[in-house]
Amino acid sequence: MKTLWIGAAALTISIMSAQSASAEENDAQAFKQMLTETGIEKGIPPEVLKAIAYKENGGFNHYDEDGSPVVSDDGGIGLMQLTFTDQEIERFDIDMERIAEDVDYHIEQAAEHLLRKKALNLPIVNDGENTDIESWYFAVMAYNGLSEINDPNTHDDAYQEDVFSYIRNNSVISIGETPELEINYGETDEDRLIMRFPDRDYTWPTETPAMQLAETGSSVYSYHEFEGFDTSNVRSEPGGQLIASINHYTPLEITDGPFEAAGEANHYVFYKVKGNFGEGYIASSNLQFGNELTIFNDLSPGEIETAVAYLQQREVINGYEDGTYRPFNVLQRRHAAALIVRALDLEKPENYEVTSPDLTPDTPGYEDLAIMEYHGIMGRGGQMNAESPLNRSQMASMLNRSFAAVYDIPDEVINIKDLSADDQIYEDIAVIVHNEITNADENTAFNPWNSVTRGQYALFFERSIRLMEKNS
């Protein structure tokens, strides 16, 4: 860390401490754990603190080869390369001898210093939430100095850019690249030391919650953005034997942790989790916070469980109060309507008058069904049949009308075992088969008159929502 100038008292005490301290050795694992614990205590993403330490000394080094605290040419002390002005030492009652000799205290003061930088009148990233990693960008910049050398427009190796690169690579997190920043300076050489920010608000391409701030009992799900992999590994212990590979969006509950990953370059942590697969340890880089996801006790690990969690995360789908989802229960038409209304945020005019003769305000699911009728998704046959089972042909029609802007239209006939291209219901079914919402071909029947189960509908609906989000 650098400041504009170093107080004489700070520099003198630092050198004395370095010379008088007893020989000590660096312990990367212990230092990483201290940084994580301090981050959790102070509400700072541990990913950020560990990346700063790694940047400052090319690793987790508080001591030099002789076992004395590291002191850089510009007076930076120890693991976090701390320097303070005389005014800061007095105002914040900083003990410079402990800065050199006590690593716990050293890390605590570094965290406090970073928090003070976060409180400065600096630009806000996204909504400025301390739990989001991107929101610390300008505080990390200020930790090293708001001088021209840290301007990312002119220096690819700006301090905070290196720190965020370590977060991406060493904590294994997909954080978006820094957008273009507007930074101004004064005309004199002295004024060029201080950045000015005309724009006070920035939106990053990502908004990444710090998973290393997760607590025991947190509701999470498995997910990462590494190309070519659509599962996450669960291990017998942190870094231990592989015991399971679980799909994205598998709902989990954290039961213990965090535990530091082994190795100086590995800044992620492991959590002990439980789910329908059992119990095990999973890396923080493979987790995301969930919206109080339910681990339904009647769902087995697999595509239905992850489809349900995917929709539950988007507040589209629910289970029953007894903790079950009941995937084999037949889906009623009113329930199918409710899912589409929630997912697409559909509405109707207050003065809309329904036309279906069997739809009245006393009909279960009336509001959702009225909205679906208004949008022409249901009720085209006259009767709404709110509590009747939804069959697979009706499902195909509803999905086509709901996701018409998303689905591709096949440019050739798709052969389906139990359908003819002349059938009235063929076109809607061919579209969802073509878009891989369901499977059917010349050897596989679609079974258009079979009832749709809750588990099947979750799969079809999840695939449609994914396609919509991919194309948006």
Automatic annotation (TrEMBL):
<dbReference type="InterPro" id="IPR023346">
    <property type="entry name" value="Lysozyme-like_dom_sf"/>
</dbReference>
<dbReference type="Pfam" id="PF00395">
    <property type="entry name" value="SLH"/>
</dbReference>
<feature type="domain" description="SLH">
    <location>
        <begin position="291"/>
        <end position="354"/>
    </location>
</feature>
<feature type="domain" description="SLH">
    <location>
        <begin position="412"/>
        <end position="472"/>
    </location>
</feature>
<dbReference type="InterPro" id="IPR001119">
    <property type="entry name" value="SLH_dom"/>
</dbReference>
<protein>
    <recommendedName>
        <fullName>SLH domain-containing protein</fullName>
    </recommendedName>
</protein>
<keyword id="KW-0732">Signal</keyword>
<dbReference type="InterPro" id="IPR051465">
    <property type="entry name" value="Cell_Envelope_Struct_Comp"/>
</dbReference>
<feature type="signal peptide">
    <location>
        <begin position="1"/>
        <end position="23"/>
    </location>
</feature>
